[in-house]
Specification:
single chain, 186 residues, mainly alpha, two-stranded antiparallel ribbon, 49% helix, Tripartite_DENN, dDENN_dom, MTMRD protein, guanyl-nucleotide exchange factor activity
Length: 186
């Protein structure tokens, strides 16, 4: 799953390389508006006649992409790093499948780490009961819950959590790297 996602991440990074240089921040309104200059993007890449890319840029998904990733000051992620810093690496790997596969696996590992920041915590699925298990006689009735003990455990947990710092992710906003200009990708 992660490797397929890594392949698509590379594809979109290649497809949208240099998109930040075609963003325009319009500050006339109370809330700044971010506009993507499609003609400049296609013209600098020499793809004005490319029907596929034109349709992608005119789609609602790309409009959402621009509004989400357009602000110059936000939390950066793996895609931003690929677009800004891995341009030459992706180009060099085009003719070398083993290097490309190695990079895809590295990206997949990073995606896995992003989604599972605490790998030591394992979530186990509860198995479904077997067919006819409800008919067995040896099943013990569910024990009664001790309300006093539940309250004690809740109070202990609250006391511990009040002394501990709040658990937040380390997403810090920064200036998004622009990467190289569009003209270098022709």
């Amino acid at each position: 799953d992660k490797e397929v996602r890594a392949i698509f991440l590379r594809l979109f990074a290649q497809l949208f390389q240099g998109y930040r240089s075609c963003l325009q921040l319009i500050r006339i309104h109370a809330e700044p508006v971010i506009h993507f200059h499609k003609a400049a993007f296609l013209g600098q890449r020499g793809l004005i006649e490319n029907d596929f890319l034109t349709k992608v840029l005119n789609g609602m998904a790309f409009a959402g992409f621009v509004s989400e990733r357009g602000p110059p000051f936000r939390t950066c992620d793996l895609f931003d790093e690929l677009v800004a810093f891995e341009v030459e690496r992706i180009k060099a790997e085009e003719g070398n499948p083993p290097k490309m596969i190695k990079h895809v696996r590295e990206l997949a590992e990073q995606l896995f780490k992003n989604e599972n920041p605490n790998p030591h915590i394992a979530f186990q699925k509860v198995p479904r009961p077997t067919e006819g298990s409800h008919l067995r006689v040896h099943i013990l009735p569910f024990p009664r819950i001790n309300e006093g003990r539940v309250q004690e455990l809740l109070q202990e947990g609250l006391a511990r959590s009040q002394g501990a710092p709040p658990a937040t992710r380390g997403d810090k906003k920064c200036v998004v790297p622009a990467g190289p200009p569009v003209g270098t990708f022709v």
